[in-house]
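Quick question, first post here. What does this chain look like in 3D?
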Amino acid sequence: MRQLYFNNGTWYQIISIIRSHNVSNKDGVVNMDALKAWRDHLGGDHVLKQNEEFYICHTVQEPEWEEIVEATNSPVEV
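> Answer (accepted):
Ran it through. Tokens below.
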């Protein structure tokens, strides 16, 4: 079972968590190309940073809602 994470009004399903040092250059700067490669490899569509970790996520789409209006049942004359 995967975790859900709520951020800025959007729900995300966390696919994987990657520590920042795993995608950083020797000077400590995050290598964005490496991070994007991990996101694409894991099938994510979004990356969130939380402290020293990157969450590779899939955005949970809001369902489309349609209001259901009940019809009034009136007797049918025969």
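The chain has a mean pLDDT of 88.
The chain has one helix and four strands.
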